[in-house]
Structures are given as C-alpha cells and as structure tokens.
Amino acid sequence: MTQQASPVWFITGCSTGFGKELAKLVLARGWRAVVTARKVEEIQELAAGHDANALAVKLDVTDAAQISAAVAQAEKKFGNIDVLVNNAGYGYLAAVEEGEDEAVRKMFETNFFGLVELTKQVLPGMRKRRHGHIVNISSIGGLVSFGATGYYHATKYAVEGISESLAIEVKPLGIKVIVVEPGPFRTDWSGRSILESKTVIHDYDETAGERRKKTHEGSGKQAGDPMRAGEAIIKAVESDHPPLHLVLGKTALELAYKKLETVKQDLDTWKETSLSADFPKNE
C-alpha cells in the first residue's frame, strides 16, 4: 500500500458512519490518522489514547481556508498524507420539481466541490512523492438512480465522473484512485443526517413520496455494516491492483449488475440507430 510501515490516512466526516469506523480501524492497526469533522469535539474520543498517531482537526470541507489549515496541520505533524478518504457528505430527499435551490447547492458544495478542493490541496504532496491513494466515497446512487434522491444522485454521479478522469491523470504519477459505492448501510445517512425539501407535491406521492417514506422506515435496519465496509476499503487500498470501482454490500452489487444489463439492453436494441448517426463510410 505505501512505502511506510505506518501510513498516514486523512479522513473526512469522522463523527459518524464510515469515517468513524474507518478511523478506528486505521488507528487499531497502529497506523497514523488525521480524523476530521465540522465539530472537533465529536471526534476527540477517536483520537484519545493515540497521541502519537492521531490528529483531530476541525474541518468543514466547504471552507477552503479550513481545508488549507487541515492539510498544513497534517503535514506538519506527520510529514505527508498517504491516503486521502473523501467521506464527508449527506443526502437530500425531494422530487426533482420539489428541489429547493439553496439546499441543493449546499449539498453540492459538500458532496462534490469540497471533495474536489481537498483533493487538489493534497495532490501536490502525493505528486512530489510519486505515491498515494485517493478514496472517494460515492454511493450505489452514483451508478443507479431512484425517485426522491435525484439531486443526491447528481452529486455522486459528479464524483464518479471526476474520479474516473482523475484516475487516468494520476496513474503515471504513482497515485491510485478508488471510488467506493456502498448500498444501504447502518449509518446516519437516512437518519439524523438526511435533509429533505419542505416543498411536497402530492402528484409525486406514489414515486418520490413513497421513496421518502421507505427511506425513513429503513433507517437503522440496513444490512450493511460500516465496520466491515471499513475493512473492505482497507483491503482495496492495500491491494497491489486496487479497483477503480468498489461496490459494497449485496444490495448494491445486485443493483449494479442490473444497471449494466439495462444499459446493455438499450445499446443492443438501438445499435443500428446509434450507428446510423455517423457519416457514411464513402463520404
């Protein structure tokens, strides 16, 4: 995974869920971790007892100045960052027509633009060392869409697209990119962390409305275990040939396969129409 016995992991969104469990696993291995959250008091317990290996840092990924300060603190204490985990993010429930611009833009600032800005500030050090991993936590919702989460999907599709381009650009520099695509996991995503539009249009009750209801009802009952997800992420990072796409959980895997089949069916059905759009070969 790294050229060091004790790699440095920089993880965002460590107050709950994947970020918290991953930080605990990293520190339990004796590795070093920069654990971050918007409210630093919520992550002090994670760092407690790991004075030499842990650094708890206040970080709102929508604040460029805080990003610069956090990266500087990490490099001052540990010298470098080997693995960046862009985990901070949240969801938003609304039919597309119900979406409220300010809320949607704020979610993009966290889920996408914050991820990009932090990545850009960590990359110079990784380029200099010709070594590093960037782990972007997307979602099965970055591959498959449902009603009521269209704007959340948009943020994650954006993460998928930029991650694939980044992987091409940094591969010759010794830097690897992994996009993690979890299905339903027992985190706070659909609980206290979820936001939703105040606007409700009853024509969407059977589609987006039903999905809103099921999302709330399923909170705390998901099959996915965040600790096991953390183990899977570590396994991928340690691999000599890590995947670009790491789908997590049975539900996510089934949905991903179904999406591939659906896209292939469209391609095959409309193949001749697709080919007819080119100039004829003799022109």
Task: Describe this entry's structure for a reader.
The protein has 9 helices and 9 strands. The protein is of the alpha/beta class and 283 residues long. It has a single domain (8-275), classed as 3-Layer(aba) Sandwich (Rossmann fold). Strands 3-2-1-4-6-7-9 form a 7-stranded parallel β-sheet, sandwiched between helices. Helix 1 (17-28) links the parallel strand 1 and strand 2 (32-37). The longest helix is centred in the middle third of the chain and has 29 residues, at 101-129.
Brief characterization of the structure:
The radius of gyration is 20 Å and the shape is globular. The strands form two sheets. It has a seven-stranded parallel sheet with strand order 3-2-1-4-6-7-9, with helices on both faces. The protein has a two-stranded parallel sheet with strand order 5-8.
- Based on CA atoms alone, the radius of gyration comes out at 20 Å
Give the CA-CA distance, first to last residue: 52 Å
What is the beta-strand fraction? 5-15%
Structural class: alpha/beta
Q: Please give the order of strands in the largest beta sheet.
A: 3-2-1-4-6-7-9
Counting copies of identical and different chains, the oligomeric state is single chain
Number of strands: 9
Helix content: 40-55%
Q: Estimate the mean pLDDT confidence.
A: 94
Shape: globular
